[in-house]
Amino acid sequence: MAGDMKKIMVTGSVGQIGSELTLALRERYGGDNVVALGRKTTPSEELLNTGPFEYQDITDKEGLVRIVESYGIDTIYHMAAILSGVGEQKPDLAYQVNMDGLKNILDIARDKELTRVLAPSSIAAFGPETPRNNTPQETVLRPRTMYGVTKVAGELLCDYYFHKWGVDVRGVRYPGIISWKTPPGGGTTDYAVAIYYDAVQKGSYECFVREDTVLPMMYMPDAINGIIDLAEAPLEGLVHHSDFNMAAMSFSAGELAASIKRHVPEFTVTYKPDYRQTIADSWPNSIDDSAAHEEWGWQPRYDLEKMTADMLTNLRKKFGK
Ligand code: AKB
């Protein structure tokens, strides 16, 4: 067990990142030491069988306090959030879950003197006025989505709790995350996952952003290892806390399709941009993550080709293709 983190709680554990993160944390720290929280969605057998699971709404603070007290939680990975696409359809819900949920977690961390909180931000914190290429760590944060607004406000809230009350809260600005285990729900970057599923299951895909849309992306193992590395990094080395730029690869939807076609030559993609195109157009093409490299040794392992090979191998196994 990493010294001061003995009992971990993961919110959003049934979600895309949370489901794999919980299993990785259980592997590393022991199943009983990682309590998974979910709201409505049915957890997988693996999640239920490898450690404690609690049904809990993130906006219900008393319920959260009960869980933190009864398990003696000292560390929280706060992954519960409404993503950008759904956030534009349901802005009130996004505000409530993303802001009230985060504030509940930070209040509990302060009041119960927890060791650490991990609270991810996103490239959605950027907006159309942000420099789009090699987006700097310190830059314009004027998003046009409710999700982005909650991410910027969330970063500021986290830093406020650190400076005012010494809550050790850390976070990264995740790019689009690609994985084969749990599908994402309601994000703008979801096309970069759905395209692999449809390549394997249907042989064709209708993409909801234009072919020339370039966004920063990351393969799930890097996303998981990265946040665990940040959690375990010595506090003394950190200049930033809850807003680390984090990059792995950038590609257009067309380049993604081409990388899949190298393995599935008959695969066809059509492009039919919807409301998420505007969101994608307001986000960076590529990210400067040198602060993460320097302050806690961030280093991704997957590029597009390596990721595509791994995604297709695993999805073919998953669907018996
Ligand atoms: C989304 O598309 O909303 C998320 C994100 C980039 O935070 N994947």
**Order of secondary-structure elements:** EHEHEHEHHEEHEEEHEEHEEHEHHH
Q: What bound compounds does this protein have? A: 2-amino-3-ketobutyric acid
What percent strand? 15-25%
Question: How would a crystallographer describe the biggest sheet?
Answer: 6 strands, parallel
CATH class of the largest domain: Alpha Beta
Instruction: Please tell me what the overall shape is.
Output: globular
**Under CATH, the topology of the largest domain is which?**
Rossmann fold
Low-pLDDT regions: none
Structural class given helices, strands, pairing? alpha/beta
Q: CATH H-level name of the largest domain... which superfamily?
A: NAD(P)-binding Rossmann-like Domain
What's the total count of β strands? 14
Instruction: Please tell me how large the radius of gyration is.
Output: 19 Å
* N/C terminus separation: 39 Å
Report mean pLDDT, rounded to a whole number: 97
